[in-house]
């Protein structure tokens, strides 16, 4: 009974903090999303073969710290903000993302990540897994010990956020999916390198992010915003020649307020089936 009260209090406090940090209206509440406690297996026991792999990967992570360039990337990946996260994906994505310069993409990412972030709260409190630096009384690469001590290790919030970001950006720009996913993979590995998470935390978190990403597509608002984000990406990267509804020269109508399947703009020179549309 006492353990249950502690878990409930921890979950409630985490939810309060999450809501305080984000004034964004999510696409779904945490209760409307899949329950990761039911979806994912429990973290490996400390006497299991899976934990042996965790130990090996922990040693691997400490070796990676000797690579100055990789260590610096891991430190940057530890910064818990949407601005820092999206800045890391700018190169593979092919466009800088900001609230002012790409408002539609920013809105999609901020709302989507706010929605999926909430999924990690319950399993962290339920399993309350000890983090690597806690188990070994070790020093982290990023000096996050005081901030993270006592918070459950399973799943990894950073990894969930990084992999969900990769999934979303790859849908916006599928031509760059390979490099986007490569960066998303590195983002999760960074949590092993800094000593914040076990490898099994990271592995489960990529699955958790995929579960959340799939759930997002059940929201009409998400699908509408994704279409706006895709159109904005094409416009910002010069792949969309349409400069307005009156003089549309693109082959397909991408205007968000167009409700017909065929372009109904008055001066459109686009073609359909090899023939000029008679607008």
What does this structure look like?
This protein has about 280 residues and is mostly helical. The chain has two domains: about 1-225, Vanadium-containing Chloroperoxidase, domain 1 (Up-down Bundle), CATH 1.20.144; about 245-279, no CATH class. Helix content is about 55%, strand content about 0%. The chain is built from 14 helices and two strands; from the N terminus they run H-H-H-H-H-H-H-H-H-H-H-H-H-H-E-E. The protein has helices spanning about 1-20, 35-40, 50-65, 70-75, 80-90, 90-95, 105-115, 120-125, 130-135, 145-150, 155-170, 175-195, 200-215, 220-235; strands spanning about 270, 275. It has a two-stranded antiparallel sheet with strand order 1-2. A hairpin with a 2-residue loop joins strand 1 (about 270) and strand 2 (about 275). Helix 7 packs antiparallel against helix 11, helix 7 runs antiparallel to helix 14 (about 220-235) and helix 11 runs antiparallel to helix 12. The longest helix is centred in the N-terminal third of the chain and has 20 residues, at about 1-20. It is globular. The N and C termini lie far apart (about 70 Å). The model is unreliable at about 1-20, about 245-255 and about 260-279 (pLDDT under 50).
């Amino acid at each position: 009974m006492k353990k249950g009260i502690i878990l409930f209090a921890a979950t409630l406090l985490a939810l309060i903090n999450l809501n305080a940090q984000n004034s964004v209206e999510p696409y779904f509440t945490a209760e409307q999303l899949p329950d990761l406690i039911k979806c994912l297996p429990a973290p490996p026991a400390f006497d299991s073969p899976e934990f042996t792999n965790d130990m090996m990967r922990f040693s691997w992570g400490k070796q990676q710290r000797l690579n100055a360039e990789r260590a610096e990337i891991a430190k940057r990946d530890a910064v818990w903000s949407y601005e820092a996260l999206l800045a890391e994906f700018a190169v593979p994505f092919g466009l800088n993302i900001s609230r002012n310069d790409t408002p539609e993409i920013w809105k999609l990412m901020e709302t989507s990540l706010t929605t999926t972030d909430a999924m990690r709260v319950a399993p962290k409190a339920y399993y309350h897994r000890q983090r690597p630096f806690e188990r070994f009384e070790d020093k982290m690469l990023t000096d996050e010990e005081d901030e993270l001590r006592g918070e459950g290790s399973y799943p990894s919030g950073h990894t969930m956020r990084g992999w969900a970001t990769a999934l979303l950006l790859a849908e916006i720009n599928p031509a760059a999916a390979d490099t986007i996913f490569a960066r998303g993979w590195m983002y999760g590995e960074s949590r092993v390198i800094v000593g914040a998470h076990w490898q099994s935390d990271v592995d489960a978190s990529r699955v958790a992010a995929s579960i959340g990403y799939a759930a997002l597509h059940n929201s009409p608002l998400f699908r509408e915003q994704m279409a706006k984000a895709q159109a904005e990406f094409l416009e910002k990267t010069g792949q969309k020649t349409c400069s307005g509804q009156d003089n549309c020269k693109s082959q397909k109508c991408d205007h968000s307020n167009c409700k017909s399947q065929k372009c109904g703009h008055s001066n459109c020179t686009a073609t359909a089936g090899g023939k000029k549309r008679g607008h």
